[in-house]
Write a structure and sequence with these properties.
By secondary structure, this protein is of the alpha/beta class. It has helices at residues 12-22, 45-61, 84-94, 103-106, 125-129, 136-143, 165-171, 183-193, 196-199, 217-224, 233-249, 265-274, 293-321, and strands at 2-7, 27-34, 68-69, 73-75, 116-117, 147-150, 156-159, 174-175. The chain has two domains: 2-199, Rossmann fold; 232-321, no CATH class. The chain is 44% helix and 10% strand. Helix 3 crosses helix 7 and helix 11 (233-249) runs antiparallel to helix 12 (265-274). The chain is globular.
């Protein structure tokens, strides 16, 4: 029986690959999950585990499931091997801005689970609309000697024989089974399987709310891939309000009749969504001179209250107009 290790988060892309594997006979699949708790600004690990706990029984019950899917192995930083050389190489290349921050941890997983499948999909719709045929990660790796040969189903055979040795240390232990397929192309496949019900339980948002936020990096990536119909109304609303506020911040934007066309208002709205639709402080007054603290605290409290009313109004207007904002 063939054994396959897959990095599975319970999100859209890795669940798509897990479903592919589940339909294959004669294989044993080991899902692997790394919990980023305490190591990044992502707070979604509980939701990802909830998604896994919901998805796996549903997938095992599918009549089409032929593979033997093992229970997920869930790891934290303390479970990873010590490798000072890897750490030094990551720190060096991190400064390029071309590496995902989680690679500092995920890159060590193949040391424990060889040929670990890393489910990075092809270029997003937004990137393709910008004229790019390849995703950012593939472009970066090809610039440093990696070569990819794609099978018809999107599976990428990776040749590292001429790769930069340091990047080979960081990336060389992975397999990229869906690098040659876009998320939009996955949708008709999922529908042909009849698995739409299953994918409603995936979790791709960076945060830990009751529903996907619609404004974080992962939600924006899914949106840019043309998956709007897979978002709940609240996430669609948040995404469109964010887009509206981004227009207000652009230089030379039209003089909209709004209360708050201030720098950083989009970021404030994202924080508002991620804190349960509550405006939070942006400055810690305790770091200011003691005499200024009560003055600045009052100014900040008053501004936060006005901003709260403004954001609440945008949300209420969108809900009332069923999709219009501003």
């Amino acid at each position: 029986m063939k054994h396959v290790n897959i990095l599975w988060t319970g999100g859209w892309d890795s669940t798509f690959r897990l479903c592919q594997l589940s339909r294959m006979d004669g294989i044993e699949v080991q899902p692997v999950y790394f919990c980023v708790q305490g190591y990044s600004d992502r707070t979604n690990w509980k939701k990802e585990i909830e998604a896994q706990n919901t998805l796996l029984p549903l997938l095992r019950q599918k009549e089409e499931t032929k593979a033997h899917i093992l229970d997920p192995v869930r790891l934290t930083a303390k479970d990873l091997p010590q490798n000072p050389v890897f750490d030094d190489v990551f720190k060096k290349w991190e400064t390029t801005g071309k590496l995902p921050g989680q690679l500092r941890f995920l890159g060590k997983l193949p040391m424990l689970f060889p040929k670990l499948e890393y489910c990075i999909e092809g270029p997003t719709l937004k990137r393709r609309q910008q004229g790019f045929k390849l995703g950012k990660t593939q472009v970066f790796l090809e610039e440093h000697g990696f070569r990819f040969h794609f099978r018809p189903d999107g599976y990428a055979d990776m040749d590292t024989s001429h790769a930069d040795p340091e990047l080979k240390l960081l990336w060389g232990g992975f397999i990229f089974p869906i690098l040659g397929i876009t998320e939009m192309a996955m949708v008709p496949i999922i529908r042909s399987w009849g698995y739409e019900d299953l994918f409603k339980h995936t979790w791709t948002c960076d945060h830990n709310g009751e529903e996907p936020c619609g404004v974080c990096h992962n939600c924006e990536t899914k949106w840019a891939s043309g998956l709007k119909n897979f978002f709940p109304p609240s996430a669609i609303r948040n995404h469109e309000i964010k887009a509206y506020l981004e227009k207000l911040e652009k230089p030379g934007s039209l003089p909209f009749a709004v209360d708050f066309a201030e720098p950083g208002i989009t970021r404030r709205f994202m924080d508002y969504v991620h804190h349960g639709y509550r405006v939070v402080d942006v400055a810690n007054v305790l770091t200011l001179p003691y005499a200024l603290q009560p003055i600045i605290a009052k100014v900040q409290a008053n501004h936060n209250a006005e901003l709260q009313r403004y954001f609440d109004r945008l949300v209420a207007e969108w809900d009332a107009k069923k999709g219009q904002v501003g």
